[in-house]
Structures are given as C-alpha cells and as structure tokens.
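seq as requested:
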Amino acid sequence: MIFFSAKKAGDAGATYDIYRQRYTDGQWTLPEVLGPAINTEFNEVDPKLTVKGDLTFSSDKPGGLGGFDIYYSEKGDTGFGLPLGFCAPVNSSANDRHFTLIQKQRFALLSSDREAGLGGFDIYSIDVYAEIRSECVEQTKGVTVTIRAQVDPNGEPLIYHWDFGDGGKGEGSEASHTYRLPGNYRVVMSAEDVATGLIYPEETVNYIPINFKSGSTVINCPPETTLGSIVELTSIVADDAPVEEYQWSLNNNQTSNTKSFKADFLSPGDQVVKLYTSSTNSDGIKVVSCVQKTINVVDPLKK
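struct tokens:
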C-alpha cells in the first residue's frame, strides 16, 4: 500500500489531498481519497506511515502554529482518527514538512524554513518525545439508554418504577436515563398496582454496561455547587488506560497534578474545570488530551 498527495485532475482551483492505493492480485487498485477526517479544503501533503501504521502528514489548514504544520493521526478499526498537531519544537511559526519518524533511533527528521536555518528549507532532527496536544473538548453529556418493561395488555394497570443504579430514578413502562460516567450499573424495576397501591415484591434486575471510548477521560464532579463550597474533582479513565501525568486547571487559577483534588469555589457563575492527561503511545510520542466541564456556582443569597 502507498500513500501520496495530489490535486484533483482538471480542477485549477483544487488543493492537495491525500490518497491511498493498494497492491492486490499483482496490480494496483484505483487511488482512494482519504475521508474528511484527514483531508480538508486546504492542502494536505507529505503522508507517511509509522511502524505502527499511524499516519503523519502536513497541512496548511487554520489552527496550526504556522504555515504548514505536521499532524499525527492514529489508525483505528474504521480508519484514521482525528489528526492532532504537534507542539513546538516539531511545529513552528514557519512551514514544517516531510516528517519521518525513525523508530529505532527514537528521533524524527523534518524539513522546515524556520528562521533558525541556513536558508530556504533545512533538515532538522527532532527528539521523538515531543508532544502532540489536542484541543480541549467539552465533556460528553453521557450515554443515554432507554429501557422498557414487558407489559401484559390484558393484565392489571401497573405503574413501573425504575432505579438506574447511579441515583437516577424513572417511572413508566418505558424510561430513558443518561449515565454521566462509565461503569456496570444495576438497574431495578418494580411494579405498583394502580388500583391498590401495592408494590409487587418481585423485582426485575438488569445490568447495563456503559462504555466510553477507550482511553477517554471523564471529570467526575457535580454540575452545580454553592458559593464557598469545596468540591472533590476526580478523573475517571475509560478501560483504566494508563495515564502518566494529570494536570488540573480552573479558571479561578487553582491547579493540581494529582488524579483527584479538592477545589474551592469562591466566585459565583460558571467555572470551567480543565483536565489534561498525558501518555506515551507505542510510537514513543507523548499524547496530551484535554477535557473540560463547566460547574455552575450558585450564590444562595441571590436565589
């Protein structure tokens, strides 16, 4: 298989996109353009695969540090994931291209026209321990499930009560609930006779596994608190994926580098909590991810 960049033939205003071509049964297949996770309306060039099969390339799309920036996209079960831009010193305010990871020597080569060079594009050697850092994303609202009771249309009218195992309650023959954290939840349903008000002793128990994307981080804390209160902030990592470093940052200037810590909220209004987690992938590159959650701090005297 080969990867290359090219413009769409016959389109004078086209930009460069990345294509893939396979060698099958003694011949090359037609070129296949990679999807919108990789290609944009801007230029994507210089594709290369790492030993692990992940993709690196350069792009001049907005949001980078300079002209062309170098990006890294992990290979997943359904294709390449969201590209992440390298931090400095891999990327600079100039044009950075032709990134090649030298696995055994644990360094990378790239070409750049940054000011430190001798002129035009120069070749640089970079320590592979450089970081790639994603933008901070709002924490997922959770996973919503809908559960239904088996209703006998000829039976007595019943009211169905649900306990979703995380403190949430519901009522009705069909009920929906959103889980904010991953886990295996014990869901209990009981039935109440409408005519007599009696609750049947028989209970239906279900165990619902709630899975988040492997390695994703969730901030465990209440969505609202009162002014002056102390709130424990805890990080939960899906599938217990290894994390090397934690870094908490609040917009009231509190910070911590522990897995969990207690923060005080002394100003009313929305307070943004950010959690950075870092780990080193199999290519030896430090990947820093960020998730944020907003806590509403309420002044009880102004309610």
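The first strand starts at residue 2 and ends at 7.
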